[in-house]
């Protein structure tokens, strides 16, 4: 009988220890976020004029903190600005960027803000980069899909832009996303990306598979992250810009 109670006590202690570890290893991700503030305004306009041509490409960037530029040291190091530079250099004409990205945005948030704002700029190019917050907020996959479909269909009705849907990348340095959450979130992330592939096929927009292209370096190189160990650093955004532009050019 005594051994029975000893086993029970040991199991209770082990359960408590595991529970505390799981709780803290997940909460640690969000406690680090408070150290970082977006280094760019919600709305900004930059132009890269590489010729005297009067033609202008208008590029609207829609998304969350990864579009807004959290982790970048300046506006010029944010993902939309880096993509605009590449487009401008390739096309030889100025690119006007409107960054509508909002830190913390989910797919639902797009429907009441950024999607409505995008059409007023009459863009030729739109990047839609969303999903990380849906994943961490446990948004059901069917709701995520419905929100994406609604957003893209609205953009297709109100603009003539070429739309690029960027899937959810692997994020989190090894010392931030601790086991078992590294495996769990990667497993869940793939489900969201499967939904995005379905949406891209259904709507006819172009899917950019950033996840597959950037997962390995993001797992291996801590320098690709900023101080919060989650959002990209300047180097991380530069890597993404190279990979994304390789798909959209």
Structural class: alpha/beta
Summed over residues and divided by their number, the pLDDT gives a mean of: 83
CATH class: Alpha Beta
- CATH architectural arrangement: 3-Layer(aba) Sandwich
Rg on CA atoms, Å = 20 Å
Low-confidence stretches: 16-27, 31-52
The CATH homologous superfamily is termed SGNH hydrolase
Shape summary: globular
Counted beta strands? 6
What's the total helix number?
10
What order do the SSEs take from the amino end to the carboxyl end, as H and E? HEEHHEHHEHHEHEHH
Summarize the structure.
The protein is α/β, with parallel strands linked by helices. The chain has helices spanning 2-33, 65-68, 79-91, 107-111, 114-118, 132-136, 141-158, 181-203, 210-220, 234-248, and strands spanning 45-47, 57-63, 95-99, 125-129, 162-166, 206-208.
Walk me through this protein's architecture.
The chain is an alpha/beta fold and 249 residues long. The chain has one domain: 3-Layer(aba) Sandwich (Rossmann fold), CATH 3.40.50.1110. It has ten helices and six strands. Helix 3 packs across helix 10 and helix 7 packs parallel to helix 8. The longest helix has 32 residues. The protein starts with a helix and ends with a helix. About 14% of the residues have low confidence.
